[in-house]
Specification:
The chain is mainly α. The protein is built from 14 helices and no strands. The longest helix is centred in the N-terminal third of the chain and has 36 residues.
Length: 316
Amino acid sequence: MFKFILKKLSLALATLWVIATVTFFLMHAIPGDPFASEKKVPPLVKAKLMEKYQLDKPLIVQYGNYIQNVFLKGDLGISMKIRGRKVNKMIANNFPKSFTLGIIAMAVSLAVGLPLGTYAALHRGKAKDSLAMFVAIIGISIPSFIVAGTLQWIVVIIKQQTGNSILPITGWGEPKHLVLPVIALSASPIAVIARMMRASMIEVLGLDYVRTARAKGVAYYTIIIKHCVRNAILPVITYLGPLFAAITTGSFVVETIFSIPGLGKYFSTSIIDKDYTVTLGVTIFYALILIIAMFVVDLAYGLVDPRIRDGKKRGA
């Protein structure tokens, strides 16, 4: 078990380093610099800013200093556009908002997706199955920003017709502000979970132990809930790793549409402004969350199935 954990940790660190390296050089490959758009900045002031943020040094030196600060000190640097703001502090202040929104959306995705997929599997080949999968296909096909814009449009239309605003279309601070962005964020995961659960349930329903339980007279719903669902949910658990990372670190577009002060706000503006440190910092933080989530999933599977932990294939 120790070797398994050590192997996963080593792979996680290597992955994080690769992501940091690729992102660093891609950001610096974009023409211009963070101060190119500030035409009113005198050349001398711009030179001082370039020196302050070490942008006047050779690229390989900048890279070495950045990697050293990140991996040895945990310092993601200072924003080049928002004066005096450390990237670590920006993430610490705004991640809780993205996390709150994401974790609720994830809970809604599971609460709706699992029963929907199970329901479709139990009515395989019937109209109910087709209807459930049609809804799932729509959820997968329509991007979250389209769902978000459509929801806002519906609320505005209702307000114009009735004179009452049932839900706020932007803002943060009250539970009602969560409703529309949660729906927009959870639409696609609901569809994915439903399709995965349906496929897995259909496979489990055809296994020998299910037929044996039926032959012994075990109650139908007892078989479904205690046996089928518990085994069919395993593929969904695998999906929860990347889903947790993606949905809790903030959907950049959705947060921008609903004016939510999460990580998405800073990430989207940092790319436009060429704010290297913020873009790099949020990317590395996102990658870290994803790696941790996947590590926990791998660890859980390693505990459940020793063959995975020992690097053996199923059925070997």
